[in-house]
């Protein structure tokens, strides 16, 4: 290969690489609100597809059970060839062909409650599966909300760490300037440099936490993990007027877990009805049309029949009784699970509510602390510049300010996530 060709190829590769880098650099970040993030997750997250498929499965199970009370139409065709044994009258009989066609219709009149019970249970199972879809939506909303606020929290903490680095950098320049004119000792410079290095280490950690939070949000909403996201919202405090009693009452009426447990209990009761049908008779109406002939397809000779069949099991070695007792034990279990679910939901609501209220109080106190710490830092800077304060005063004041801001951000994060947990614990429906 000539040097000219090699040079052209290298130039083309470089140009292509620059274009790719330019395209990547110019790609605008994806801007998302919390509601947009939730909508993305509802469309993309595999758990939604699984819950929807589960609901469809139980929908068809209802139709399957309902088919048990409808008529059944069947058709059969038989081709036969037979030869009778020789007899005195017919010493050498010839083979005989028989072509038979039968159309039969069967309609259950009474099943002893078996079909009705099966339909009832299937319908309750479907309702429970439908609630399972709602439950999946609520859990997914909580996951997205936690991930969204986690990214907001790490972004705000990153800003606090950056402010600390900026403040300590400016303070170090001031200390160095005073050291050069001989007004402060070398130890002040060294201590300021150490504090700045520590702040820079914290800034690196905060940046990594932010990147991880962004990847987590991408994962839950179904975007590529390296997608750059820009959040449109800020963490804010909106006071909730909900009382604990109202929250628990709402959960008892609308929480999917409670309603699912109720349907499971009702389904278990239908299972008892199915089991007890073994003690009762069944009545079936049937009819048939039959055509038979010695020539294919066998449609010459026609006869028909209609009959009503009543059957009752007189003895089955306690098989039916065993099924009934098994089903009744299932009712006892389902009833206790229903009671247990209500207690668990009530506890979950209480925990989320009290956590929200505790975070609410911390927001109020940390807001005051931030304002006072900011004023204290400014005073420490002025005193140090005037020569009446120490380097340690400035560093301590800056650390106190950073901690106060961190406490405030943490309180806001805890409040918003506790509020989201409370919505999920209560069973607040997800808008879609």
Q: What's the number of extended β-strand segments?
A: 6
CA(first)-CA(last) distance: 62 Å
- Low-pLDDT parts are 1-7, 10-15, 18-26
Give the overall pLDDT as a whole number: 90
The helix-and-strand class reads: alpha+beta
Range of helix content: 55-70%
CATH architecture: Up-down Bundle
Task: Look at the structure and give the CATH class.
Answer: Mainly Alpha
- The CATH homologous superfamily is called Outer membrane efflux proteins (OEP)
Question: What portion of the residues fall into strands of 2 or more residues?
Answer: 5-15%
What's the helix count? Answer: 9
| Overall domain count | 1
Give me the CATH fold name: Outer membrane efflux proteins (OEP)
Radius of gyration: 39 Å
Strand and helix order: HEHHEEHHEHHEEHH
- Main pleated sheet: 4 strands, antiparallel
Estimate the global geometry from the Cα principal axes: elongated
Q: How do the strands of the widest beta sheet line up side by side?
A: 2-3-5-6
Describe the protein in words.
With 432 residues, this protein is α+β, with helices and mostly antiparallel strands. The chain is built from nine helices and six strands. The two termini are 62 Å apart. Strands 2-3-5-6 form a four-stranded antiparallel sheet, with no helix packed on it. Strands 1-4 form a two-stranded parallel sheet. Helix content is 68%, strand content 13%. A hairpin with a 7-residue loop joins β5 (282-293) and β6 (301-311). It has a single domain (35-81, 94-426), classed as Up-down Bundle (Outer membrane efflux proteins (OEP)). α4 runs antiparallel to α7 (256-276), α4 (114-180) packs antiparallel against α9 and α6 (244-254) runs antiparallel to α8. Pfam families: OEP. Residues 1-27 form the signal peptide.
